[in-house]
From TrEMBL:
It catalyses: malonyl-[ACP] + acetyl-CoA + H(+) = 3-oxobutanoyl-[ACP] + CO2 + CoA. The gene is fabH. InterPro entries: ACP_syn_III_C, ACP_syn_III_N, FabH, Thiolase-like. Pathway: Lipid metabolism; fatty acid biosynthesis. HAMAP family: FabH. The last Arg residue of the ACP-binding site is essential for the weak association between ACP/AcpP and FabH. This is Beta-ketoacyl-[acyl-carrier-protein] synthase III. SUPFAM superfamilies: Thiolase-like (SSF53901). Residues 238-325 form the Beta-ketoacyl-[acyl-carrier-protein] synthase III C-terminal domain.
Length: 325
């Protein structure tokens, strides 16, 4: 049976570093509060007129093609997970393909907030497993700074910009993506959303004045759902596949809050030395957190390692994936 394996990873983060010290000059917050509540020390911000999520996604894909010695013409499908698309339409995946020279193939976006990458990877893997395609790219890219209110201390300290891309190819040796679970609950919408800009509340002067084009989050409510669901779904995929804290080599959790990461690892019986964490550098980059973690820890991943990806985000959405590296 064909499995879809990740055969290349590339991340991209913008140069500008927004530190907690700089945030202290913008809102009533402190480095101590941010680090103790979230684990975040700094995040990257994409500066530059007319640059959106497609720019970062394209940079990641360009690097990925170069690193894996793959020509753009060999790619058969590109999926982009993003919650901050450049436009409502066309989709960001179309724009990325154009920027990197991938022509005449299917490309589309997946929107599942912070679970977007796990969703997109789940979908992309199906095209490999069925034998339809041999080279699929999955991108996660988010310019959260575009929808964050930098006068709202409850959200502006949390998010950052970044992108990551992976190449999926067939593996017949039993490695690759073994299982995935994706779930959602739209009743979570009131707790985490961007209210205006879509079809329900098209942008008007009034919606702008009310700040409805910014991320709204009821942090403590979302915290409870995130801890519970990420822990449960990770435990579920481990149990289903006969895994324990001992034989899991790596947990790659969505990076929203260090306390959520620690609670998830604890529930799974996985020691923190086996958990990928880079939230201190990038904050919550939404669809990009998981590929950015894989990129940062790439040199430590060994063939055959049991790796669990776990995510939770707006929707609510959540998901877990088990792959053999
Ligand atoms: N600096 C200082 N004080 C602050 C700040 C800040 N940056 N932000 C909030 N506070 C204050 C609040 O105003 C509040 O004060 P009050 O009691 O006087 O009103 C107090 O700190 C506590 O606020 P809480 O929101 O209860 O703080 P909490 O401990 O819950 O931490 C946080 C907030 C970090 C947002 C946490 O709730 C969290 O991580 N939630 C989950 C985030 C998540 O997983 N999101 C899903 C993915 S994101 C996506 O899908 C797009």
């Amino acid at each position: 049976q064909i499995k879809a394996a990740i055969t290349g990873i590339q991340g991209y983060v913008p140069d500008y570093i927004l530190t907690n010290a700089e945030l202290e000059t913008m809102v009533a917050t402190s480095d101590e509060w941010i680090v103790s509540r979230t684990g975040i020390k700094e995040r990257r911000i994409l500066k530059g007129e007319g640059l959106g999520s497609s720019h970062m996604g394209a940079e990641a894909v360009k690097g990925l093609l170069a690193k894996t010695n793959t020509r753009a013409e060999e790619i058969e499908l590109l999926i982009c997970a993003t919650t901050t698309p450049d436009y409502v339409f066309p989709c960001t995946a179309n724009l990325i393909c154009d920027m990197v020279g991938i022509r005449n193939v299917g490309s589309f976006d997946i929107q599942a907030a912070c679970s977007g990458f796990v969703y997109a990877l789940t979908l992309g893997s199906q095209f490999i497993e069925t034998g339809k395609y041999k080279k699929v790219i999955v991108v996660g890219s988010d310019k959260m700074s575009a929808i964050v209110d930098y006068t709202d201390r409850k959200t502006c300290v949390l998010f950052g910009d970044g992108a990551g891309a992976v190449l999926l190819e067939p593996d017949t040796e039993g490695n690759g993506i073994i299982d995935s679970i994706i779930r959602s609950d739209g009743a979570g919408a009131p707790y985490l959303h961007q209210k205006a800009g879509g079809s329900r509340y098209p942008p008007t002067h009034e919606t702008i004045d009310k700040g409805w084009h910014y991320v709204f989050q009821d942090g403590s409510q979302v915290f409870k759902f995130a801890v519970t669901n990420m822990a449960f779904i990770s435990a579920e995929i481990m149990e289903k596949n006969g895994l324990t804290g001992d034989n899991v080599a790596w947990l790659v959790p969505h990076q929203a809050n260090k306390r959520i990461i620690e609670a998830t690892a604890n529930r799974m019986g996985v020691g923190m030395d086996k958990v990928m964490v880079n939230i201190q550098h990038y904050g919550n980059t939404t669809s990009a957190t998981i590929p950015l973690c894989l990129w940062d820890y790439e040199s430590q991943l060994k063939k055959g390692d049991n790796v669990i990806l776990a995510a939770f985000g707006g929707g609510f959405t959540w998901g877990a994936m088990y792959l053999k590296w």
